[in-house]
Design brief:
This protein is 36% helix and 25% strand. The protein is α+β, with helices and mostly antiparallel strands. The protein has 3 domains: 15-203, Threonyl-tRNA Synthetase, Chain A, domain 2; 211-369 and 446-496, Bira Bifunctional Protein, Domain 2 (BirA Bifunctional Protein, domain 2, 2-Layer Sandwich); 503-601, Anticodon-binding domain (Rossmann fold, 3-Layer(aba) Sandwich). The strands form 7 sheets. It has an 8-stranded mixed beta sheet. The longest helix is centred in the N-terminal third of the chain and has 20 residues, at 15-34. It starts with 14 loop residues before the first helix and ends in a 5-residue tail after the last helix. Residues 1-13 have low confidence and may be disordered.
Amino acid sequence: MKNDNHNHEGSHPSNIEHIRHSLAHLLATATLSLYPDTLVTIGPAVENGFYYDMDFTTPLTEKDLESLNKRMKEILREWKKAASKSEEKGFVCKKVSGDEAKALFQNNPYKLELIEEIIAKGEEITLYVSGDGSPYPFTDLCRGGHIDDVSQIDENSFKLARIAGAYWRGDEKNKMLTRVYGLAFNTKEELQEYEYMLEEAKKRDHKKLGKELGLFTFSELVGPGLPLWSPKGTRIREALNDYVMELRARYGYQKVSIPHITKKDLYEKSGHWEKYKDDLFKIETRENHLYAMKPMNCPHHTQIFDSEMRSYRDMPQRYCETTAVYRDEQSGELSGLSRILCITQDDAHVFCRVNQINEEVEHVWNIIMEFYSTFGFSNITPRLSRRDPETPEKYLGEAKNWDLAENTLKEVIESHTKEWIDGPGEAAFYGPKIDFMAKDALGRKHQVATIQLDFVQPSRFELFCINEKGEKESVVMLHVAIMGSIERFLSVIIEHFAGAFPLWMSPVQLRIVPIGERQLQFADEVYKKAKALGIRVDLDSSNDSFGKRVRNAKTEKVPVVAVIGDKEMESNQLTLEGRSEKIGVFNVDEALDMILTNSRNKSLHI
């Protein structure tokens, strides 16, 4: 472990990261001034703020955050006063021996544990002192990365946000600590903008909207992490999956189908059993055979490829299917659709020759870019997720194949863009990948699609084709996920659109609302005509008032409402209204054709 209580992204932290790091120390200082018996442990700067894990003798509550936040600002003013009278404006570094560090933290077992590890690794021990000369000096075990001048911290640009439980060092066998989270930005305006985004995110929460729009539900009898999809939610899932399959069909992908369980042997040979055996749902048969619910599909697909002899003329083989996989997540880690036990994957695997890799990756790249542009995602950025060079033992396969795979993916990325992220340590254990990062409507980053290049599984399963010389030639394997998990993708999409889906994927595309009974027969004729054309349509002929029926359509975020009164009935027209404004008055056939055209074109707006 590095001699540091704080994690940083990248090798050159920006000024805001230094501010957040410094504020973590300020939080610990304020905590000790109010709760002197508290044991402070570690507290990194993180995206959008900072946190500190602490062991309180008296439980801290959300109500206590206001007074703790106030004390942070008071202490910051004292630090600034002291700094104005001193040559040292920021945090002062002190190098100490192991015995000196132990003496300083003799009453804090958490710090002592860290110190022992630093000593064992032969690393330098450094302390950082803040607020020297003020009534609130604070010394912490730390590697550094602080603000040079505390006067640069705006007391209105940060605030404490929430508390949570956190096991010491992330190990559930250790004591549960209290984690205090804070938000921090360069300016008050940036903080306010982020808080607005958080409030907007609450309104867009997919768990809330999913229930309000009647898309999915959870049942205590079925179990947590196992969503049940309503007819409306299922229509959205099918629309998304049909679109992915349509894009894949252009590049010669063929559908396959596999069972949901397998013998243990398959995963032992693929290498998944050793790594994931604790995350699998296991089944023991009456004959004492051990099976597992499949947590991934790739080993099954290798067996389809290996079921017959393949010539180089048959290459590549492109298989795809949308199917569920199952992973035994801990109940505390489950969260809405984002993390569940049953994951539906739009999965695909390409078996190809080495000289076909670039072209196949290029095909997938094209599919991904077209798919995500349809949803209006901005700034799709590829990340090269590669090996961690410091821990080669974590990865299967030969180093030369890893080098080839990483260099090949890098070449593809650089042929498309100069803006990409290097991700050492982000590779899967059997191959590097390109992960695509996208920003949603609120500017939040999400990992979406993935292209993974795998030499390991084809080697373990001895997959080959017969080349032009009549010799066996080893093949490679691409793992391709466009949505990845349909459930997780939908959690992102629901929040991205705030439930107001574009017409092509809306569960109800058109709602017909006759003003009264007199127009009901004509409305029913329009309904049948729309339905025959394949439009997802319903007819609201309930006894509610006309105004309430229109409001219901808007509340349910139906993209097009067709209002029918006497005038429309007599002229064979429809008055179309969108979610927020009138679209216009059209002949029935013209209106239905416009809806169909919009749906086929997958337009964001009608």
